[in-house]
Write a structure and sequence with these properties.
Radius of gyration: 24 Å
Mean pLDDT: 92
Strand order of the largest sheet: 13-12-9-7-8-15-16-24
Helix content: 25-40%
Number of strands: 31
Low-confidence stretches: 1-13
Largest sheet: 8 strands, mixed
Length: 678
């Protein structure tokens, strides 16, 4: 596309200006296709909208049910949909018990300590069965938990975390897992909202080579929760080293119980799994809103489990003999769906790594992959960019063989995708660029790896059964190939989607359905398109490209620009490792973008680099996307899970309050950037 035609693309206020150049296709190897779980093209016809909702019985058939369902989809309380209503099932049974007859000696979990001198633990399905049963007995008899109770789990990456989750689901106890890196107040918010009287933690864990006192955080969480009106009467503490206290925070008499000691009472106990209704809640997963209290996404049992099992099989291409490593934290939805419930329901071997991917050096991930012969690798663009920044040449030093790699969590820029494919995947692995959300339970868009070619930077079409649509502000559909972006929605419900926001149905309806709802009294699913809150454009081939949150769209002189597109353009410059765009108020244009970039090691900030970035944006997008300022910073402010805190950068650019930054991985960098911006 010439510079001239680029500037002429007319967009109304309601649409988002898009200037992506479509990338070339990459095809899976015949070897991959030959072994793939899904190579039957008729799935797209079977899962056409005209066959909805009955096509989802195919997913449910992958599970073991005590009783089959009375109705595939119950819409009587739309948009709080109930899947496989009346069916009876247990998630713990499906992830463990049903595999024992043929596979009890198979490894279920490989636990890798951050310390390389500590041996990897290999937990078989039989051992997992024993440990889950004994802990379920402890939860039932010591902690007095019963079906329908909520329990908050604030634990680091450890084998004990899935054991805890599966023990809860065995009893029908609703678990709410809080990311281990979250602060005491974030944990307390979730305890109060879910009304948990039991909190489960671990005394310590390794992060960057240091043994952190985690019990201290939960001591404080209990105090804050009590002030908020929810008393924790039982604090269950797993020991990082059984038989040894790794935290010097004193125990509270009558409240604290050391799990490893208490478990001795339950040696050999077996707990019959609760027969849960398919529509009973399995867990709560809180999404932290930037403002207001976090939303507790309530996920059901049968629908969720059927969906993540099918996605693990068809999109992740997990076979029972594969060694599968998802690098996410179990404290996020990715970890729930694609470290615990999906892979274990398929009888896979799942890897859990305690620490930082770059500790003690940038070769760590590839050493783990080599040692365990991992062949499916699943991580976020954040981690990929970090590994590309600190160790671009590391993957070549190790012998591992990935057949499949996933990217998840945010759009991946084509330049980063190509590095991932070439260096990490050694040009052999297929890549699925998956787009989905906490609320959706599993994937919405992705290529089916055995059937559809990959395209860098593009999430691909809707996965089988998901039928996305792009609406402008006024509810008009923007067709494929229009070159216009808008709000991507899903026309139909699906089994993995959350059931409601815990204790707040009005907020659920308002946030996700009200915008494009055709009739608020309707019981017809067609009247309730799901608003994802993301902006997207659909290419002529039907593939979707996600442009980030609708809230992250910058309105420059009536042109709505996706921040992801500007960041992508900046990342085409060789020296740039990371890029983040934030909107800055402008009295004439409304908003204009500020761009923050961090350079790869070995490069120093200079006017030449700033000009290269500026030119790349003009070339890729046009003058409309010119940034107010390009700031080269020593590092981006990041959460402990590696996400760039754009909110903090936005506050700095707009001379606002950055808020509490002490929970960041690198709070000191905020002061440096503030001084720079002035």
């Amino acid at each position: 596309m010439s510079e001239k035609t680029k500037d002429v693309v007319e967009t109304s206020e309601a649409e988002i200006a898009v200037h992506w150049q479509e990338e070339a296709y990459y095809h899976a190897s015949p070897g991959f296709i030959g072994q793939a779980n899904l190579t039957d093209e008729s799935i797209f016809e079977r899962f056409a909208l005209k066959n909805f909702p009955d096509y989802y019985t195919e997913f449910a058939e992958m599970l073991t049910w005590y009783k089959y369902w009375d109705e595939v989809l119950d819409t009587s309380d739309a948009p709080c949909f109930k899947w496989f209503r009346g069916g009876q099932i247990n998630a713990s049974y499906n992830c463990i018990d049903r595999h024992l007859k043929a596979n009890k000696n198979k490894t279920a979990i490989h636990f890798v300590s951050e310390l390389e001198e500590e041996a990897i633990q290999h937990i078989t399905y039989q051992e997992l069965y024993v440990r889950v049963n004994e802990f379920a007995a402890l939860l039932r008899d010591t902690a007095k938990l019963k079906r329908g109770d909520r329990v908050t789990i604030h634990m680091p990456m450890s084998a004990e975390l899935p054991i805890t989750m599966l023990a809860c689901s065995r009893l029908g106890v609703i678990h709410s897992v809080v990311f281990g890196g979250f602060s005491a107040s974030a944990c307390a918010d979730r305890i109060v909202d879910s009304q948990s009287r039991v909190l489960i933690t671990m005394d310590a864990y390794y992060r960057g080579g240091k043994l952190l006192n985690h019990k201290a955080v939960d001591e404080e969480a209990c105090q804050i929760a009590a002030e908020g009106g929810q008393k924790v009467d039982t604090l269950l503490v797993w020991q990082r080293y059984p038989g040894k206290n790794s935290s010097d925070t004193p125990a509270v008499e009558g409240r604290d119980i050391i799990v490893n000691d208490e478990l001795k009472k339950y040696y050999g106990v077996r707990v019959e799994p609760e027969r849960m209704l398919s529509e009973d809640p399995l867990f709560l997963m809180y999404t932290s809103g930037t403002t207001g209290k976090p939303k507790g996404c309530q996920h059901g049992t049968g629908g969720y489990l059927a969906y993540v099992t099918a996605m693990s099989k068809y999109i992740q291409d997990i076979h029972p003999e594969d060694v599968y490593w998802c690098m996410a934290d179990i404290g996020w939805i990715t970890g729930h769906s694609f470290i615990v419930y999906g892979p274990l329901a398929l009888c896979a071997s799942t890897v859990i790594y305690e620490g930082v991917p770059t500790y003690p050096d940038a070769g760590r991930c590839w050493r783990i992959a080599q040692a365990l012969d991992v062949n499916i690798f699943h991580t976020a663009p954040t981690a990929i960019r970090a590994l590309r920044k600190v160790g671009p040449d590391e993957p070549a030093k190790y012998t591992y063989n990935f057949k499949h790699m996933t990217t998840v969590g945010e759009p991946i820029e084509p330049e980063v995708w190509k590095w991932y494919q070439k260096e990490v995947g050694k040009e052999k692995a297929v890549i699925v660029d998956t787009w989905w959300q906490t609320e959706t339970g599993g994937f919405l868009c992705s290529t089916v790896p055995g059937l559809q070619p990959m395209k860098p930077g593009s999430a691909g079409p809707g996965v089988p059964g998901i039928h996305p649509v792009i609406f402008d502000e006024d509810g008009n559909e923007l067709p494929a190939g229009s070159g216009k972006a808008g709000n991507i929605c899903i026309q139909n419900p699906w089994p993995g989607m959350f059931q409601t926001i815990w204790g707040d149905r009005p907020r659920f309806v308002k946030n996700y359905f009200e915008r494009y709802c055709k009739n608020p009294d309707s019981k017809d699913w067609r009247d309730w398109p799901y608003l994802t809150g993301d902006a997207a454009v659909q290419a002529p081939d039907g593939y979707f490209r996600i442009l980030g949150r609708i809230d992250d769209v910058i309105n420059v002189s009536g042109h709505r620009l996706g921040t992801k597109e500007i960041e992508s353009a900046a990342l085409t410059v060789n020296e740039v490792a990371e890029a983040a765009v934030v909107p800055v108020a402008h009295e004439v244009k409304g908003k204009e973008p500020d761009l923050y970039v961090a350079l790869k090691p070995g490069f120093k900030a200079s006017d030449e680099i700033v000009k290269k970035i500026d030119d790349a944006i003009t070339y890729q997008i046009g003058k409309i996307a010119k940034c107010r300022r390009i700031w080269i910073v020593p590092d981006m402010p990041k959460t402990r899970s590696g996400k760039i805190m754009r909110r903090v950068l936005g506050a700095i650019s707009n001379h606002g309050d950055v808020g509490n930054v002490m929970t960041l991985a690198n709070p000191e960098v905020v002061e440096e950037i503030k001084k720079m911006v002035g």
